[in-house]
Specification:
Layout lengths: L3 E14 L4 E14 L3 E5 L6 H9 L6 E6 L2 E2 L3 H4 L2 E4 L11 H11 L4 H14 L15 H13 L5 E5 L7 H16 L3 E5 L3 H7 L2 E6 L2 E7 H5 L14 H13 L14 H8 L11
The chain binds adenosine-5'-triphosphate (ATP) and magnesium ion.
Length: 288
């Protein structure tokens, strides 16, 4: 973790809606620091202001008041925009292009030319596991492949910050796992990943820090570890626990004066069952 990648100070955004121009406050004096080299989750119910925050960070939307800086540079400034790669919630990619052509085209827009561009395109296609399918047309891609190619186009100009709006929506558990592994490796290479998501269990697993918004205001923020930790409770998990051993363990705990015990049989998470069940064919279709 290093300096702040993104700094929001009293960020406020109003929208006027309806013919009477009724004012809707989508963001209300939001203060937030997103440390560099972390995976940061922006959470909150529908309409809480997540996408509005991301759009201001990207420089696609102006704030009504307050300040938004990317590595110290005001959002929207060319130097700030060049540091950010973006994967929108519902990306539209030209269906008749191949994945490689799309990434190549966007690399060109970012100013990359010739051999350097081709080399960089190859690198990102490889990093997102799309080399084998790069020459197929985008209209033939599955949702997981679309997200990967979306990630490739967001990464092609080597941004320091990656902004993702609901990146896991529509991905199956395997696709989600693979996508999260890519994000982790990007973080480990020193990138900052900022994502808005509703998939809380996956967010808990992958994010270093989170912020929770409600009606445009910050209601909680900090490290995921600190937020979910409850020091007053202890959870014991015993592998291969026979009924006899269970009885003995309970007796020992009771002789220790521990009577308010919650004993539950172990459970496997449904996504673990799902992944186990599809293991034999769990090979990536993109890699074939
Ligand atoms: N262009 C716009 N014009 C008017 N109101 C808008 C506009 N964009 C966003 N809003 C309003 O701002 C509020 C925040 O919207 P935003 O899209 O940021 O929420 P969100 O947290 O991303 O929600 P979701 O989880 O549904 O994606 C909502 O009440 C929304 O209706
Ligand atoms: Mg949104």
């Amino acid at each position: 973790m290093g300096e702040s990648a993104v700094q929001l100070r009293d960020l406020t955004r109003d929208f006027s809606i309806g013919v009477r121009g009724y004012k809707l406050r989508a963001l209300d004096k939001l203060n937030l620091e997103i440390p560099s080299q972390t995976i940061f989750g922006l959470l909150g119910p529908n309409g809480s202001g997540k996408s509005t925050t991301l759009k201001i960070i990207l420089g696609l939307l102006k704030s009504s008041s307050g300040d938004c800086r990317i590595f110290g540079v005001p959002a929207g400034d060319r130097r700030a925009r060049s540091q950010i790669g973006f994967l929108p919630e519902n990306p539209f990619f030209y269906q008749f292009l191949t994945g490689r052509e799309l990434v190549c085209f966007l690399a060109g827009i970012s100013g990359l030319r010739g051999g350097i561009r081709d080399q960089r395109v190859e690198e990102v296609l490889n990093a997102v596991g799309m080399s084998a399918s790069a020459d197929h047309r985008i209209r033939t891609y599955s949702k997981g492949m679309l997200q990967r190619i979306g990630l490739a186009q967001a990464l092609v100009h080597e941004p320091e910050i990656l902004v993702l709006d609901e990146p896991m929506s529509g991905l199956d558990p395997l696709g989600t796992n693979e996508f999260l592994e890519i994000l982790k490796s990007l973080r480990d290479q020193g990138k900052t990943v900022l994502l808005a998501s509703h998939l809380l269990s996956r967010v808990e697993e992958i994010c270093d820090e989170i912020a929770i918004l409600d009606k445009g205001s910050l209601v909680r923020s900090g490290s995921v570890h600190q937020i979910v930790q409850d020091n007053s409770r202890l959870i014991l998990e015993i592998e291969d626990c026979s009924p006899e051993r269970e009885q003995r363990v309970l007796e020992i705990l009771r002789t220790e004066g521990i009577h308010s015990l919650q004993v539950r049989k172990g459970r496997t998470r449904l996504d673990e069952v799902f992944l186990e069940a599809i293991k034999p064919s769990g090979k990536n279709e993109q890699q074939e």
